Please model this.
Amino acid sequence: MEKRKPIAIIGAGIAGLTAADYLRKHKEPFILFEASDKIAGLAASFTDAEGFSNDFGAHFITNRLAKAVGVNDECIMVKHYGEAIMLRGKIYKYPFGLIAIPRMVLSILKSKFKFGGGNIEAGSAKEWFRNRYGLAFSDEVALPLIEAWSGAPAEDLSPAVGSSLPASIIKTFYLKAASFFTRRAVACGYNREMPEKPSVWHVYPRGGVSTLCKKLAEGLEDSIRLQSPVREIITENNKVVAVKVNGETIPVSAVISTAPANILAKMVSGTDVLKDFSRFRFRPMIFINFKLNGTNILPDTVLWFPEKIHPFFRLTEVTRSMPWLAPAGKSIITVDIGCEKDDHLWNMSEQDITELCLQHLETTFPGFREKLMGSSVIRTTIAYPIFLKLYEKERLEFEKSTGIENLISIGRNGEFAHRFMEDIYWRTQKKIRHFLDTRKERTHVQPLNQVPV
Model:
C-alpha cells in the first residue's frame, strides 16, 4: 500500500500547533515546519533575570480555551480587567464612564433611534461608526483610535472594521456588569467563534501563554522541524504538490499555512490565483515595555488616547490584572506606537524612542521617570491587518478560500483577520475539519463511467 503524502503545516504558533494536534488526533500524517529555532511564534513568553515576565504581544485566553487545550490546572484566574479613555485631559472608565458625558450618550441614542440597531449600510469605516454610534463618540473616540491603530484614514477603511471589533455597547455593558458582580474578568470582545457569557473569563498560565503551545506540541516532537523555513509552495493544475524547504523538495498532499496572507501569495508558484492577495497590508508597530517601581500607575489595565497629542495611542499595565508578572511592588507598562516601516519613528534608536515616550508619559503621569527600572523595545511589521477598501473585494474572496483546494490559510495573520487566541483555536479546528471532510467526499465520489449500473 502506497504511503500517504503528509500535509505540510507552516508555522509553529498557536494556529499551526492547533492544526497539528487536530491532525494527530485524526491520524493524518503531517510535517510542521517552523522557520525559527523554537515553537510559539507570536505566543512566545519571556522572563528576565529580575523576575519580570511578558509575552511578545498582548494575549488574552479564557478558562474555556485553557480547559480545551488541557492547561486549566496550570492557570490563575484573572479577577479584573478594565479599560479607560483619556479625553480632553480627563479619564473616563469604559464603558460606564461615558455615561458622564451627555454628548456621548445623546449621540449614541440618536443613532440607535435613527437606525434601530439593525444592519447598517455604509461605504467606509467612517460611515459605519458614525451611523452606529453617532458623531460624538465616533469622531472623538472610535475613529481616531482606529486611524492610529491602522495608520489609514477612516474613510479609506472598509466598514468591515466595525464588525471585526469587540461587542456592541449593550453587550459590553452586560458583560462588564457580570465582571463586577462575579469578581472575575469576564471575557468581552475576545470571542466570536464561541458565545461570550459570564461563565467565560480570562485566565493566565503560570508559565506564560506559550504554555498552550507547549501543551499542544506534546508528543509531536518527531513531526516538528525547527529552523526549516518553507521557501516555496509548488502547485500543478491549481493544486499543491510539494514544498521546498532548506533546498529540499518534499511532496505533500496539502498545505496549511500560518504565513501572513500577503507573504503566502508570494510563496506559491505554478499559479497566479493568489496574486491579488499580495496587496494586503499589515500595520507596523513599536512596543516599549517599561519596568517600574510601584503598582497601579495607570487608572486601569488599558488606557486609550484618542487625541493625537502623543506618539502612542494605548498604554497597558498588564500587572493591574496579573500582578504575578512582576516582582512584588513593581509593574510593567507597555506602550503601543503605530508607525510605518522606515518612517522617522521606526528608524529612531531604542534610546531615542524610549526617551520620546518618557517625555510624554511624564506630562500625563508626573514622576513616571523616577519609577523607571528599565525598558525594552520590540518592533514588528505585521502587528495588525489593515482592512483597506482598496482591496476589500479580494479580502472577502480570501476569507472564503485561497482559491487552491488543498491550500488552507489559518491564524490571525494567515487569515488576514482580527482574531484573538481562542477564536484562532476554534476556527482552526473548524477549517481543518471542513477540509478533511471535503477531501473525504471527493475521494469517495466515483467518475460516472465507473459507477455500477
